[in-house]
Design goal:
The complex is a heterodimer of chains A (473) and B (471). By secondary structure, chain A is an all-alpha fold. Chain A contains 17 helices and no strands. Chain B has 471 residues and is an all-alpha fold. Chain B has 18 helices and no strands. Classes of the chains: A mainly alpha (473), B mainly alpha (471). Chain A: Keywords: Cell membrane, Membrane, Transmembrane, Transmembrane helix. Chain A: InterPro entries: NrfD-like (IPR005614).
């Protein structure tokens, strides 16, 4: 699938003097070594946050949803905000592994594994909110169309909340299969390098007897391509369906047709920001700077900049059409966002999402690791507020002024959210010590076209021939 | 170098001539007075055509006007009780006098629709071909900005297609100016009598007013044409350069253009398309329009590439390049459907009267074109272009491409016509003539440009990758 010729203007994706064996060693090192003190500290903090979250959820289920700050007017607040936020973050993983695969972006290879792990872990966090924001979560299985003894009482397929059930569960399953298929050759590599019988056994089971024959590789590639082709519409449809939760309603500020693509753009935006946050730390701690290079960070920043601009364009469109529609409710919804009691959250969302990605136009900023890290955090904060603004400011003041109210979260709202962050990092930290965090098989496939060593070799060999392209060197 | 075959040139002239004849005929045969309309309706009644129940509806009162008003035909001067203000409906008296007035109003209303019909036919076709060339230009800019390694061998084809943007934009601009000058009534909000009675449009006059409308159009068209000319110039200069300076200039210009494009494209679609239904609005509309002409532009690139390759002009283009173009045709067709469905389903689901009327008129009066285009733009290309081997066959590409282009013409037809001619639509001499005229002009301009420069961009830093591209 890759052409045998690569233009000299393309920068190397694997830097330093690396050969195939070096890749294996570098990828296996974090798995084969022992965790250091920093890892244990981080893990303990994450675990504590997770357990606190478990406590808050237990309290909610035991006592009732009334422990949250939601009220009769604002029935959805932090629960659905966090749900949409986590689902959005999960989208970058599939974007990187599927969409970038379809577009033959070689730089995805160093980051796709971790991005997909991030997808799976964040979709798990997201999936908890639909269950635990229910008043009677023990009846959650009723959302499934299962034949039953109530005269086969069925679900109504007209609700986007039911579509959510199918979207999220399909998304999690497909992402998991896609991720695991890609892991087979890498688990096999760890299996073959294992020195203790225990790890040998574990990675033998995980790698499903992968032996890397030509036929296996051929089918492997085919499956990856088909799954990428399926995962791309899936990823678009999942966040689209999440956006339908709002857009199908008649609430001013929610009912707008741009929500589907705009939620998807926002998901890519926040997801890439989260990948950037995690990878900037991981490349340093796991010593993977040769694979996750400054160019990778720059390209992710460019994606953030593009999707940030799309989101900005959607904000302006919404504002314009609210005015243009001549519908007073719609106009007031936006006036309320900008100047109402939650003006500060609207301002935060606008600054973080519209202004912050625009600084990426400067090469100095988008190639600076520190700046990228800070902006990636800013974007995630902004995207949390985007969901909060859409949900809460549209609900707390709508058609009937007699129903206007405010929303104040309680410590249980916050505890649940903190718990999911803790759980996410528990999973991610465990992953980073037991899984090959870089798809070594894929990285090896671009060694000859895109590594610094081979690029140099090629330049030396072709330096004197009369190809016009070599004039650049 | 490409030489414009004399047969193709003659063909384009024939298309232009036939188109002008068809358009001229449709303008000449359009009714001039209420009496003409009466005759037409009587003839339809005699034949039991669809005018029959329309007539009956008018005689009985609300029915026909109920939905016609949604298409905002308040333009007729005597129209007072049929605005969108529902309280005005109270003025109806079931006496003979009122029935007569009603009939008279109906006649003027139909006259108005039939007078606008040839103009709308020209406008739809002019807009479609201009936007198609803009779609190809956007694709070109994306390829440049993304540093695509497969497509540089097709850059000259894309530059050829985008050359139509200049005459195409000028023609559309003239049509917009004619609208502001009150020569035609495609844009109902340009009619002062209508605005005086319609408080909804009055609230929008800060945006929807002639001078501002034309200034916006001039800025957008100017910006697109400027980028087109600038990138073409740099692309040619890069052929003989010793370094990559022009390539880098084009890279930067493409990135800036895309930013300008996303904004101007959204606003353009509100201005030139959405505002024909000035009571209706949709936030998704701009992106929906984009998907429609973007896939048309890519399809045009594919069709012209296949043609030039068949004539032996594109040495380095192989089936892998065609395959990639076909994948884009497939992918963007799905994307278009996604946006179509999102817009349609959300309005259908919420069923808010002021929005859903848009789809109600289309489903009632344009049933076949409305759902037919879904088959042409989605079902057919998706089924045929999913197969990898098929995506490498020229005849499949040509077949799928023609269906996609026709389907997206109908998409634009569906966007404009219900608001301007209502249920008096027909794809007849005027509509086909307009398509032939602009197709002929498009072929003439594009292939003339293709003769002006070598078909291979020589010193593009990615051209070697593109020449060796295999997938």
């Amino acid at each position: 699938m890759s052409s045998h010729y690569e233009a000299p203007i393309r920068k190397p994706l694997i830097i330093g003097d690396k050969n195939y064996h070096d890749v294996t060693v570098d990828v296996a090192r974090p798995v084969e070594g022992r965790a250091n003190k920093q890892w244990w500290i981080a893990f303990s903090i994450a675990l504590a946050a997770f357990l606190w979250g478990v406590g808050c959820v237990a309290y909610t289920v035991g006592t009732g949803i009334g422990t949250w700050g939601s009220n009769k007017t604002v029935g959805w607040a932090w629960d659905i905000t966090n749900f949409v936020w986590w689902v959005g973050i999960g989208h970058a993983g599939t974007l990187i592994s599927a969409v970038l695969l379809l577009f033959r972006q070689k730089w995805r290879m160093a980051i796709n594994r971790s991005a997909e792990a991030m997808t799976i872990f964040s979709v798990i966090q997201a999936a908890m909110f639909p269950v635990f924001h229910m008043g009677r979560p023990w009846l959650a299985y009723w959302v499934m169309p299962i034949p039953n003894q109530f005269g086969s009482l069925w679900v109504n397929f007209n609700s986007p909340l039911l579509w959510d059930v199918f979207a999220i569960s399909t998304y999690l399953s497909v992402s998991l299969v896609f991720w695991w298929t890609g892991l087979l050759p890498d688990f096999a590599m760890l299996r073959d390098r294992a020195i203790t019988p225990f790890t040998k056994r574990v990675y033998s089971i995980l790698s499903f007897g992968w032996s890397g024959r030509a036929k296996d590789w051929q089918r492997f590639e085919e499956v990856s391509l088909v799954l990428a082709g399926l995962a791309t519409p899936l990823v678009l449809s999942v966040h689209t369906i999440v956006s339908f939760d709002f857009a199908t309603s008649v609430i001013p500020g929610w009912h707008t047709t741009i929500l589907p693509p705009y939620f998807v753009a926002g998901a890519i935006f926040s997801g890439f920001a989260m990948v950037n946050t995690l990878l900037i730390i991981m490349r340093k701690l796991s010593h993977l700077e040769a694979y996750i290079t400054i160019q990778h960070i720059e390209l992710m920043n460019i994606v953030i900049m593009i999707t940030g601009s799309i989101v900005g364009c959607a904000y302006i469109t919404e504002l314009f059409v609210a005015w243009y529609s001549g519908v007073e409710y719609e106009q007031y919804a936006f006036l309320n966002r900008a100047t109402g009691p939650y003006w500060w959250s609207y301002l935060l969302m606008m600054t973080c999402n519209v202004v912050s990605p625009q600084v990426m136009w400067f090469k100095k900023i988008r190639t600076s690791i520190m700046a990228s890290f800070i902006i990636s955090l800013v974007v995630n904060i902004g995207m949390w507020f985007e969901r909060f603004v859409i949900i809460v400011t549209s609900l707390h003041r709508d058609y009937l002024p007699s129903s206007w109210t405010m929303f104040q979260p309680t410590f249980v709202d916050a505890g649940f959210f903190i718990g999911t962050i803790g759980f996410f990092f528990v999973l991610f930290l465990l992953y980073s010590r037991s899984f090959p965090v870089i798809a070594q098989a894929e990285v090896k496939s671009i060694m000859k076209t895109s590594s610094e060593t081979y690029k140099r070799k090629r330049d030396q060999e072709h330096g004197n021939d009369n190809h016009s392209h070599s004039e650049n060197h | 170098m490409y030489t414009f075959s004399s047969r193709l040139k003659t063909f384009s002239f024939v298309l232009i001539a036939l188109g002008i004849l068809g358009i001229g005929y449709s303008f000449l045969t359009a009714p001039k007075t209420v009496e003409d309309v009466e005759k037409i309706l009587a003839a339809e009644n005699a034949h039991g055509g669809h005018g029959a129940d329309h007539e009956a509806g008018a005689a009985h009162g609300e029915d026909a006007h109920g939905h016609a008003a949604e298409g905002h035909h308040e333009a007729t001067a005597s129209h007072t009780s049929h605005g969108n203000d529902t309280h005005a409906e109270a003025g109806h008296q079931p006496d003979v006098h009122a029935a007569h007035d009603e009939h008279q109003e109906h006649l003027e209303h139909v006259l108005h629709q039939l007078k606008t019909k040839p103009w709308s036919a020209v406008y739809v076709a002019a807009l479609f071909f201009m936007l198609l060339s803009l779609g190809a230009l956007a694709f070109y800019a994306i390829q440049n900005a993304a540093q695509a390694g497969w497509s540089p061998v097709l850059f000259r084809v894309m530059e050829g297609i985008s050359s139509y943007l200049i005459p195409g934009a000028i023609i559309v601009f003239i049509l917009l100016v004619l609208g502001v000058m009150d020569m035609h009534h495609i844009f109902i909000w340009m009619d002062e009598d209508v605005v005086a009675k319609d408080h909804l449009i009055q609230a929008k006059t800060g945006y929807l007013n002639g001078p501002f409308f034309l200034i916006r159009a001039a800025i957008f068209m100017g910006g697109w044409i400027w980028y087109r000319q600038y990138s073409r110039k740099n692309s040619l200069l890069q052929d003989d350069a010793n370094d990559n300076i022009y390539y880098k200039k084009n890279f930067k210009a493409s990135a800036s253009f895309l930013v300008f494009f996303i904004i101007s494209e959204s606003i353009m679609s509100w201005d030139w398309i959405m505002s024909v239904d000035p009571h209706w609005y949709s936030t998704l509309f701009g992106w929906y329009v984009f998907a429609s002409f973007f896939v048309s532009g890519i399809t045009a690139i594919a069709l012209i590439t296949v043609y030039l390759k068949a004539k032996g002009y594109l040495e380095y283009v192989n089936t892998s390049h065609i395959h990639d173009l076909a994948k884009f045709m497939f992918g963007i067709s799905v994307f278009w459907t996604y946006l179509w469905f999102s817009q349609f389903m959300l309005m259908w689901y919420a069923d808010i009267p002021e929005e859903v009327v848009y789809f109600k008129t289309r489903i009632e009066d344009y049933n076949l074109p409305f759902f037919g285009m879904l088959v042409m733009n989605f079902v057919f290309p998706v089924l045929i272009l999913i197969n990898t081997d098929f995506k490498r066959l020229s005849w499949i590409i040509v077949m799928a491409g023609i269906v996609i282009l026709c389907g997206h013409y109908i998409d634009f037809f569906n966007m404009i016509m219900p608001a301007t001619v209502g249920d008096r639509w027909f794809i007849g001499v005027g509509e086909i003539g307009a398509v032939l005229l602009f197709l002929g002009l498009f072929i003439f301009v594009v292939f003339t440009t293709l003769t002006k420069a070598p078909l291979l961009a020589k010193r593009n830093p990615l051209i070697e990758e593109s020449k060796h591209f295999h997938y």
